[in-house]
């Protein structure tokens, strides 16, 4: 029995200028559930995450070798369209970055860019995305408010709603809660768990507890190499590699 695979990485290496940031990473990321990338700062977690929707393309001197397949298609092939890719694979960053516009316009941005919805359809889509991001009840009466007026945690959920509004297949989170207070962090974690039921969710976190709370599978990286990848419970309780064991038990990093 095989699980449906969303991303298949085959010997992926990444370079910034002449410096190699990732060494021949090979792994499958299933279509459902949450996959966490953990490891010490600088080990290549963000680089790998950003290679899943070609966010690194804009970095001068960036190069990738190997293959990244999304639903079986090579996303780096000359025929692949990065704009269409980023619609299918959304991203949420560490610092919430709402546009300087209203709550409604933030969420409507993607559908307006990619689709031709009637005003009524657009309003429904915005509501759908805000509900999915667990923000609807807090903002439904003030959709014209500037996004910057929201709290930090609400702004981060707004960014999640913005990413969801184009109905992506996958959502990438790069330390989405590291700038948030504990309550807001808990809400984002709940959301990550919930979204993993219907989407492919990949989350970079330096918070090991967070990985154990949200991730079905965890991948541990060290110095640009994938050291160990497996069910989160196994990786944390019965790691196969001594470096993984040292890391998850807090002996370094
Ligand atoms: N834009 C960049 N230009 C040059 N080097 C970079 C860039 N981004 C990351 N790197 C380097 O690539 C390596 C991996 O970085 P990163 O993927 O950000 O690690 P992590 O997210 O695990 O902290 C580090 O050595 C980092 O300095
Ligand atoms: Mg990072």
Terminal CA distance reads: 36 Å
At CATH level 2, the architecture is 3-Layer(aba) Sandwich
CATH topology: Rossmann fold
Question: How many whole angstroms does the radius of gyration measure?
Answer: 18 Å
Mean pLDDT: 95
What is the element string, with H for helices and E for strands? EEEHEEHEHHHHEHEHEEHH
CATH superfamily: P-loop containing nucleotide triphosphate hydrolases
- State the major sheet: 6 strands, mixed
* Oligomer kind: single chain
- The CATH class label is Alpha Beta
Secondary-structure class: alpha/beta
Count of DSSP strands: 10
Protein architecture, described:
With 253 residues, the protein is of the alpha/beta class. It has a single domain (5-248), classed as Rossmann fold. The protein contains ten helices and ten strands. The chain has helices at 45-51, 82-88, 103-114, 119-132, 136-139, 152-164, 182-195, 208-214, 232-237, 242-248; strands spanning 5-16, 19-30, 33-38, 62-70, 73-74, 89-92, 170-174, 200-204, 217-222, 225-231. The protein has a six-stranded mixed β-sheet, sandwiched between helices. Helix 7 links the parallel strand 7 (170-174) and strand 8. The radius of gyration is 18 Å and the shape is globular. It starts with a strand and ends in a 5-residue tail after the last helix. The model has no long low-confidence stretch (mean pLDDT 95). The site of magnesium ion has 3 residues, from helix 1.
List keywords for this structure.
single chain; 253 residues; alpha/beta; Rossmann fold; 6-stranded mixed β-sheet; 27% strand; globular; binds adenosine-5'-diphosphate; binds magnesium ion
